[in-house]
Design brief:
289 residues; mainly beta; 19 strands
Length: 289
Amino acid sequence: MQAIRLRTILLLFIVLLAGCRQRRLSSADVQLELSASDQRVGETTLLLRVTDRDGAAVNDPGQLSVRGDMDHAGMVPVLAEADSSEDGVFSLPFEWTMGGGWIVEARLTLPNGDVALETFRFEILSEATEAGTMNMGHGETPGESSAAYLRIQNRGEGDVTLVSATSAAAAELSFHRTVADGDMARMEAVNSVLIPAGETVDLAPGGLHIMLLDLQADLPPESALTLRLACDSGETYDLDFPVMTMRMGELDDEVAIGDLVFSQRWARPAQAGGMTNHAQMHDSATPSN
């Protein structure tokens, strides 16, 4: 009887020890694997598997948030969240809103507060891409272009109209807006961007943005892009844009020049000469480090 009791106590101790060990997992101890049930435009299910260094499923891994963004100036990001998993696997309803290259960022907040972050790439098919008629809207070779985004607040009493953008990083810069055309994103050039007095205008994915065409230099992640905006009065604004795969949350980068306040500045990574991460995309997701 005493031996049975000792074995029971030992078993409980092992279970408690395993639980404590799992609760102490840090972001460096977990691995994330992401897959999608369907890689065509429309509804899908994302499955994110969380394992430890030994490949074992992590039970109760924490809370998961997912953000999907196109790898060119496409539609607005798609967000999804889950706070429960089964055998270390999260299942999230998701929607591919446009055909083309997507970057999905998975952010797992562990029970101890650590955050495990991983990005995955998908190539999403639409009727147009399956027919071989995909159009990015510019006619450029993928990878020879990038896009820059920012928020502009006009604190003055008069309207400001931006008429041009220039940068040593690209031979041509122009203002564009994204237009939904069926299940694809189409870009339209605009001659100017009006910043009304007392108002704020966002240049962001899914709307207005600045296109950089015919890149003269690579724009790798964590680098910086210098860009000059000019308004119809002749005044110019020199701004730095951090290059990042996607913007998560608010940036502390506010800069005031004259009546205008510029913030939330970022640009997409790309490589000059047509060599781009499109070539690294496969039928299944591959993580991007």
